[in-house]
Design goal:
It is a single chain. With 433 residues, the protein is an all-beta fold. It has a single domain, classed as 7 Propeller (Methylamine Dehydrogenase, Chain H). Strands 3-29-30-31-32 form a 5-stranded mixed beta sheet, with no helix packed on it. A 4-stranded antiparallel beta sheet has the order 4-35-34-33, with no helix packed on it. A 4-stranded antiparallel beta sheet has the order 5-6-7-8, with no helix packed on it. The chain is globular and about 55 Å long.
């Protein structure tokens, strides 16, 4: 029988899961803004949406459920671009990438990725589809990378990360690649190339860089001192690489490991705090806790300098978000508000267990581990819950997606779409009804 301590460590990384990619914002109905949710944690991979005009209060029973569909196992989030929604799950003996109608939930196509992935800590794929132009990229839990047409799911190319020397983490491949220009940049986890870039059109490897094992975090992109950089939070810490050639611009050591097994557990994605700072957090030693670093540049060379570091926010699963000078995130089962400049806590709230959250229109949209959904004011003064509902039942570790006023939530059996603007009823679909 597995020791409780080890089970807890593995369950923590099993939820550090999903991701997608950037697509241009789209205009919607007059008086509000809307944007695609085309990658893990939204347009900028930070969990913040440009959506406005969301309901300030919910009707009794919560926002209207536009549609509900049954899904297979997995922790993949939903990528939404235009009228298409893209997700991954597992059925029978296969991991699948699926194209759905965003408004109705009707399945348009499905594409097999690789054989099924099973684990005591949750079966199925861990990442979220990456949508770039007319191509969707997806990585299964075994490290099989596919590029398909968004229109019909036709395969364009595929690569096996393990065949390139990659080492699949013990709880499955969970780091979602990111697109920068014509490069799909992924975490490989190899001694002769921790990170790898593929040509988005051909799938041919362009460069390899670094030497490290994979973590469970997904990379982000940011610009500091006019230089674009992709930042990975892999097994031994932060590594920033130049997207064109893979040159390592700077690094910062930070390790989190399961105390029972030694498995690397850096799981939450870094957060860029403009213009030149970055936030990281992890839940286990030796580098348990959180920190804000300042990225400095002198004569073309970069370095990371620590601004503050403490244990006020020990992130186990889902990443925090940054809104108006404050960091909001989960310290174990406690939702907290942290001053990004000082690391001081301003409030805390229970009731969500190890949940996830995104932000839009001055509000936090908080999704609890057991399916509770809440609308919370994004303010440092106090925790102020505006509305709540029971959206799903059972383990719900996948971060929400928000596009065109529709909120997409899932667990390992159900995907549901809610109307957060109160204007979608006339376009309601019947999928799964």
């Amino acid at each position: 029988m597995m020791r409780p301590q080890r089970l807890f460590c593995e369950l923590a990384v099993a939820g550090a899961l999903a991701a997608i990619i950037v697509s241009p914002a789209s205009a919607s109905e007059a008086g509000r803004e809307s944007s695609a949710w085309s990658q893990f944690r939204g347009p900028n991979r930070d969990g913040v949406s440009a959506e406005t005009g969301l309901l300030d209060r919910w009707p009794e029973g919560g926002p209207e459920i536009l549609w509900r569909v049954s899904v297979g196992a997995g922790y993949s989030g939903v990528a939404v671009v235009g009228d298409g929604a893209f997700a991954m799950w597992q059925e029978d003996d296969q991991q699948l990438l699926l194209g759905l109608d965003a408004a109705t939930g009707q399945e348009r196509w499905r594409h097999p990725l690789s054989p099924a992935y099973t684990s005591p800590y949750g079966d199925g794929p861990r990442t979220t589809p990456v949508v770039h132009g007319e191509t969707a990229f997806a990585v299964g839990a075994r490290g099989h990378l596919h590029a398909v047409k968004t229109s019909d799911g036709t395969r364009l190319w595929e690569r096996d990360l393990a065949s390139l020397g990659g080492r699949v983490p013990s709880s499955g491949y969970s780091s979602t690649p990111i697109v920068e220009e014509d490069r799909l940049i992924a975490e490989l986890g190899a001694e002769d190339g921790a990170f790898v870039a593929f040509d988005t059109t051909s799938g041919e490897p362009v460069w390899r860089a670094g030497s490290d094992m994979s973590g469970y975090s997904s990379p982000i992109a940011m610009t500091v001192a006019g230089i674009r950089q992709v930042v990975f939070f892999s097994a031994r810490g932060l590594f920033a690489v130049a997207p064109r050639d893979g040159h390592v611009l700077w690094s910062f050591p930070w390790e989190s490991r399961c105390p029972a097994t030694g498995v690397p557990l850096n799981a939450a994605s870094p957060i860029h705090i403009p213009p030149d700072r970055i936030f990281i957090s992890s839940a286990y030693g030796p580098d348990e806790g959180a920190a804000v670093l300042r990225i400095v540049e002198e004569d073309g060379r970069f370095a990371a300098q620590q601004v503050w570091r403490n244990r006020v926010l020990n992130t186990k699963i889902n990443s925090a978000i940054y809104v108006d000078g404050m960091l909001y995130g989960f310290d174990g089962g406690m939702l907290k508000s942290i001053d990004a400049a000082t690391g001081q806590e301003s409030w805390r709230a229970r009731g969500f267990q190890r949940g996830s959250l995104i932000a839009a229109d001055g509000k936090l949209i908080v999704f609890g581990e057991q399916g509770k959904l809440a609308l919370v004011a994004a303010t440092p003064e106090q925790y102020r819950e505006l509305a709540s509902m029971q959206a799903l039942e059972g383990r719900s570790w996948t971060s929400p997606s928000l596009a065109d006023g529709r909120l997409y939530l899932r667990n390992d059996s159900t995907l549901v779409c809610l109307d957060l603007i109160g204007k979608h009823s006339h376009r309601r679909g019947a999928a799964g009804e």
